[in-house]
Amino acid sequence: MSGASASTREYHANPTWRSKKEAQQVDYPSQEAFQSVMNRIERLPGLVSPNEIDRLRTQLASVAEGNAFLLQTGDCAELFDYCDPEQIQAKLKLSLLMSLILIWGARKPVVRIGRIAGQYAKPRSKPTEIVTKIDPVTGQASQHEIMSFRGDNINAFSAEPASGRIPDPERLLQAYFHSAATLNHIRSELASGLADLHAPRQWSFQHVQSSALQAEFESVVDSLTDALDFMRTIGADPSTFSSSSVLNSVDYFISHEGLSLGYEEALTRLVRKPTPANPHSARNVHPSDLANGAPTGDSFDRYDLSAHTIWLGDRTRQLDGAHVDFFSSIRNPVGVKVGPSMKPSELIQILDILNPDVPIPAAASSARTSGWSTPSGTTPNIVYGKEKGRVMVIIRLGAAKVTSHLPPLLEAIAASNHKDSIILLCDPMHGNTQTSPYPPASSDPNAQPLKTRSFGDIISEILSFLEIISSDFPTLHLGGVHLELTGDKDVTECFGGSMRLEPKDLERGYKSHCDPRLNFEQSLDVAFLLSHYFRN
Ligand code: PEP
Ligand code: MN
Predict the structure, then answer these.
(1) What's the short name of a Pfam family annotated to this entry (predicted)?
(2) Which one of 114, 150, 376, 513 has the largest count of C-beta atoms within 10 Å of its C-beta?
(3) pLDDT digits (tens, 9 = 90+) for 289-306
(4) Cα torsion at 96, 98, 101, 105 (round to 10°)?
(5) Within 13 Å of residue 372, how many CA atoms lie on the same side as its CB?
(6) Ligand 1 nearest-atom number relative to CA 394
(7) Is 70 exceeded by the pLDDT of residue 364?
(8) Ligand 1 atom showing the smallest separation from residue 514 Cα
(9) Which residues contact 411 (CB under 8 A, 6 or more apart)?
(10) Of 24, 126, 255, 257, which is best to mutate to test ligand 1, by the most ligand atoms within 8 angstroms of its C-beta?
(11) What is the CB neighbour count within 10 angstroms for residue 169?
């Protein structure tokens, strides 16, 4: 490695998070092996670009203003094995279909973010689990304590006691390359016209079983095709519009839980801030830029190029922890999961850290910031405010708790100076996990009772969220939804929905190694439900 790149690296390091407690830290057998992988990743190109991140920031500002809707969807835990063209296309098509249905109902652009191309790390409540193994020769059963599965980038799911699920740092390098291959396929599909809104019928809707859903979709497509024909007739073909056009917007952003801070840091780069004189100067810092010493905080930003946005999990959001500190240090928009244990005052403290007041040159300030003030003693042409859309608050309380726990959280937000900058997302999945009443039919002694979610609970949480916001919080709005789903049509992990799956059907197509996901048809059910809500 050249001396020059080593010195660039020194300035990438944000010393403060490293001195704080890192929840869910992984114990690698060899720190040297881990460090050597990190050194390799530091020299690899970013997976996304600072310009793309800035583009998402602009779109999220519109979501915060209520002018766009956010749809964040994907697997609970992505596996390296999911990096196959059919599966990637299926997820992409489902996201496009859902957004089309939402655009039709809400009459707003939809910002699409996938839990994809890097959603490999999982936080666990227990570090180990007990598995039973049957000796194939003697038939004797024995119990083994092995590490919990922490996601494909940490250890292998295979519960062979011999492997013990020992963490292997090489998996982080594999994660990088699987993310890169997945993202490359997404980019090439979008560039090849997968998202052509003139041909939505090709998006494989024919697999939907429910004839009512089929008919609904036909009518959405008909009205859209009419609108497109009309626009072409009057010479305003939306495909000639700028990318901000509702119909021609084919951006698709990637996200994952920012759990493995070493990996996130290794993909974080210093980027020169644009200046009024040179507004397009955002680019990675070259070692020669550093010849005259360290860059100052005023001239550079840190961009985490592992994804356009990452989120802070409900288990790693400690106020004084390493994760909150790392998240506060990057320019990317960030999410924070909010479960029932979050106190309203704690939420505001986290928001203060993640989205502090920043100075905005008056000339450059626009509708993108809010809550401006000019503290005494500061230069009058600088205003201070919050960056709009910087934080997505992803609320996951569960259908049973949303009515009691949501109002105090919303009251605190509405009374704070975050109210205009925040994006409120409803995650109706993580508070609604339950165990299937049916014991596993499999003869595998390691078979666990299935984790599932009721479609009815998922819908009920979304509707309660909407009801509470619209009746009691006129200054706030639902910015979007965060869903665990799969484009796979045969998956049976959640019960209910227009396919009328029963808990006893789950074993038939249960594929998740982590949380249960909505299948293709159930996902469209949710999209139609939201679409109807906004239309009426
Ligand atoms: C998840 O999104 O898969 C997850 C683990 O969420 P939470 O942090 O909300 O439990
Ligand atoms: Mn999950």
Answers:
(1) DAHP_synth_2
(2) 114
(3) 555 555 555 678 899 999
(4) -120
(5) 15
(6) 9
(7) no
(8) 3
(9) 344, 473
(10) 257
(11) 24
